[in-house]
Specification:
Blueprint: E1 4-7, E2 23-28, E3 38-43, E4 49-52, E5 61-66, E6 88-91, E7 95-101
Antiparallel strand pairs: 1-2, 2-3, 3-7, 4-6, 5-7
Length: 102
């Protein structure tokens, strides 16, 4: 995995040339084997978006941050993070989701 990979509505397709684009995501790869990869999805549009997660080998994505909920519940402790068992996740309008790999 590259150090950083940029995405738009679709994986590996950032919409740099579209001034009206309201979706941006990126994947940051871990440096050390014991670290997590991080995938960040930002939806600043007025509509919910179903966004695909990058494939992982031997690891799973876990939901770490979801700003759609209450401010007291938007960041989850590692023990509270749920495994994302699907290849995509709904990102609510005007919200950010952060996933960690383990």
């Amino acid at each position: 995995m590259k150090d950083i990979t940029w995405h738009g509505v679709k994986l590996n397709e950032p919409q740099w040339q579209d001034p009206s684009a309201k979706i941006l995501a990126c994947t940051l790869s871990r440096i050390e084997p014991e670290e997590e990869d991080v995938h960040i999805m930002c939806n600043m549009s007025d509509d919910d978006q179903l966004m695909e997660l990058p494939k992982l080998s031997g690891r799973s994505w876990h939901l770490a941050v979801d700003t759609n909920g209450s401010i007291k519940e938007d960041v989850m402790e590692t023990s509270q993070q749920r495994i994302i068992s699907t290849r995509s996740i709904k990102v609510s309008s005007h919200s950010i989701i952060v996933c960690e790999s383990r």
